[in-house]
Structures are given as C-alpha cells and as structure tokens.
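Subject: Protein entry, chain in single-letter code together with its fold tokens

Area: Proteins and the way their chains fold up in space.

Attached in line: The record itself begins immediately under this heading.
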Amino acid sequence: MDKNTGHTMKMLFLLFLVMWNEQEGALAIQAQSRFGIVEPFPINIYPLEYTSAQVTCIAFDSQGVKVPSKILFMRRDQFNFFVELKADDNLSLKNRTEIQGNNTKLSVTLFIRNVTVEDDSLFGKLGSYECHAFAVGDVVERARHGFSVSVIQRQEIPVVVLPDDIVFQHDDGITLICNVTERGSLSTPLKRISWLKDGVLLESVRNPDPQISQDTLSPLKLKDARDGGKYTCLLEVLLRNIKAHNVSDTTMIHIAPWLPKPKEDIEEKAFKGSNVSF
C-alpha cells in the first residue's frame, strides 16, 4: 500500500467516525423524546343514536424535547386512506393547551352533535377512527391512536309504557301495569325493573322476564286518595352488554275533590234574608 492510498483510507476512516458520532448524537437526542398520545387515551364509545358524543386525544412529551403543534382526527375510507374530520354543522373541535412543568400538553376534543349510523366505525361510509399528533416542525404525524364509535340504534333499546295521567274518582279502583312493549335487542340483558312513587322505591325485580308474570313487576292497585302521586316504571338495561342505560315512563294520579255524603238528608226552612247554618 503506497503513501497516497494509506492517506486516503485514513481520511475515509476519520469521515466515518464523524458521521457515526453525528448519528449517535441524533439517536441520543431522539431517545430522550417521549412524545406521544398519552393517558387518558381516547376510548371506544357507544353513543345512542340521535344523541351527542365526544372523544378527546392528548399529545405530550414528558421530556420536553418535542412540542405538540396539532392533533387531527381521521377516518379511513373504502380505499384505506385517511380522511381528516373537519368542523361542520355536526362536528366541532375544541383545542386546549396547558403547561405541565415546563412542557406543553395539547388536548383536542371531537364533538358530534347528533350521532347517526353514518358515524359508526363499521356501518358508516367512512370506517375506523384515529387521532394523529404532530410536533412543531413535523410534516407527518409523530404519534397516532385508534378508537371506535359503535352507534346503538333506537330499535335495540327496550320501551316501557304506562297509561296517561288519570283522575282518581271517589269509589274508583285503578290498576297500574308497566308494559314492556318493545323488547329491543335480545342480546341486551334486562338487569332490573322497579316501581317508584314520587321518587321512592316501592318494588324491584332483578333480571326480569316480561313474558313471565312471576318474573316481572306486580300490577299496582290504587284504592283511595292516599294513592295519588307520580308513578314511575324504571327498567335498567345493559346495552350490548357494555353500556348501562335506564328506560322509564311516568304517570300522574290526580285525586278528584269530593265531599262525604251525609248520613241522612238535612232540611232547614228559613225566611228570605235570614241566616242559615248546617
């Protein structure tokens, strides 16, 4: 090996050391960053159809190396590409920034004003949800986290019905029956059914079966003025075996005024203009 060749190899070796040291330094800096989507993570939600819903994503670097700049909510389309969810008449986004220690934490909440089947991860035109977090200076997301929206449709929810408000007349007898008119999804457990009067529990049956009279609420028999008040039939269910939900109906029992009938007819004669008492 001549002198020039040796000098060239030495220079290449030194260049390799410089590049290796720079790479190690970059890796060391990157290893210090703990940027990501942090707890509480966005959760899978089960909103009822035609109600509102919200999901929050939080981006943070506990080491303070990276500063979060934005969080985007995305859904996959039929070609598996991401589509950004932007504010419109039914969607809104709220950003909140706070300082934890000396580091910036960014929270973004997605609000859905009126949930429909189109918002469902499986049955909407768009599919699964993710939130993507970006740091200052980033062109692509640095962290992402997926979640699902499972819309519980109205036909899945049982329905209970009581009669309209009733005026209780003297010598009347009233029987109140809580009718489960729609069972909803057969996969929805019925956990408890209860009678309440003016908010006070009267009777309760666990794991009711509306088809079997012994396994559901007994009818309420109302007999006199003391039975007036607000009656509620409350059915507690577990939609999709996950989401606790209460179904109820109420009725008011009004008591008609009446005077007791005298034991015998009373007749009193008087002249015009005089006072009479009974």
Q: What stands out?
A: Residues 208 and 216 are 5 Å apart (CA to CA). Helices lie at 3-32. The radius of gyration is 35 Å. The chain has one helix and 17 strands.
